[in-house]
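Batch manifest, entry 17 of 40.
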Amino acid sequence: MPTNLRSALTLERPGARMGADRVALLRAIGRTGSISAAAREVGVSYKAAWDGVQAMNNVFATPLVTAAPGGRAGGGARLTPAGEKVIAAFTAIQDGLARVVASLETQIDLDPGDMLWSLMMKTSARNAYRCTVTAVTEGAVSAEVDMELGGGQTLTAVITGRSASEMALAPGVEVFALVKSSFVILAKADEVGLTSVRNRLTGTVADRTDGPVNSEIVLELGGGKTLAATITRDSAETLNLQPGDAATALVKSSHVILALP
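Output type: structure tokens
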């Protein structure tokens, strides 16, 4: 898969943040001479733009923007010399970071797209898998996306047709599939029976951690992949799943969230 690695710069300290979004707002104010016009250009509300300007002016020694009140109709606004310097400094740092990332792409033997995305990706979902789309079935409102998970396992997600279109999902496209551990239903391998749940992932219990209220059970799915399920302690006691036991994880297709790498 071709690497499409881009750097993103955010400068932070307690109570202050400067990222590409705010620098874009500054640039737009410099071009348009208006906070309301700049807000429209960068795609935020007037209030969000005004709040951003105030926040930036508050954390710098001198204001980055001077503005005459004008509300949504627009008053005059211009960048101060300090604002111009901030844009120049941020751009220089961002360009330098981009050069470093470009250099890393030629120095790292592993596919940097795979490795660096895995390092940078942060999500509250306990289970995240890199999958390959095998089929997309479009409906009037929703689309069904079938994926190869690896280790002989497959996964299906039902998302809105608009999302499938915007993500340009098609066979061969690589995606990340996210599944919260609380969305996983567990059953003993030979006790699943008939169910309307679309996804059935078979595996072996690798670990079980019991808490006062909930238990976390981790399944080995094969191919080096695992799946974590959070169920009630009572359910864990009833199932009595122990390391080494065969089990099946059931996941509704509507509970699978997709993201592009």
